[in-house]
Amino acid sequence: MSLDYILTKMNNNTIQTNIDAIRDAVPEHVTLVAVSKTQPLDVIASAYAEGIRDFGENRVAELVEKADAFPDDIRWHAIGHLQTNKAKVVAPLSHLVHAVDSTRIYEALAQHKNPKPLDVLLQVHIAEESSKFGFLEDELRALLALSGDGNETFGNTSIRIKGLMGMATYTKDTAQIAKEFKGLRSLFEELAPSMGADFDTLSMGMSGDWNIAIDEGSTMIRVGSAIFGARH
Ligand SMILES: *Cc1c(COP(=O)(O)O)cnc(C)c1O
Description:
Elements: H1 3-25, E1 31-35, H2 41-49, E2 54-57, H3 60-69, E3 75-78, H4 87-93, E4 96-100, H5 103-110, E5 118-124, H6 137-147, E6 159-166, H7 174-195, E7 201-204, H8 210-215, E8 220-223, H9 225-228
Pyridoxal-5'-phosphate binds near residues 167 and 225.
């Protein structure tokens, strides 16, 4: 047995243990997205072997390469900030785009012509850090008030607004994190009645805060390092 083989084995066992632990703690109505950005194909393959089918990527080139390498039953989640010129590539590969953070990217994604509407989440800026992307709450309210039902936003039928996404401040202050998630959830609930039945997804929670997010009403968590270890 080579050292490489042993190390790979160890790594795979860790991934299995991590996935099992998270699954045990996550209620059934919450979808676990394994964030595989920067992880090589063999690492993704071990999560796939554990039954994971939802994977999150934040770079377009990586998404393209990985989507090509793996079976079609994987649901790829585009979780990173997108440039409008990448919309055409991302739309047909993505099960769900989490990071629609401007009207421009929304409109760029809406131009794609697939038989099935593209599912997207609107990213809301909830953190104290200015570095994080997303609509301000008031911007989002104004935008959706103008457009009415989510399926007809900006007069478009090739895109479907499934819900909201947000990232909390990177801090040890769990009360602060809970407050930010609570705010996103109440915005979600305020908007839901006018958005239709498709509006059912609240993507919040990462490795450091997914348990807080679930307590605050998350329906989808995006977990990377707590499954795969540190990123490459
Ligand atoms: C990287 C990333 C994650 C996962 O981060 P971890 O802390 O490793 O779980 C989740 N969401 C987004 C938008 C990311 O970019």
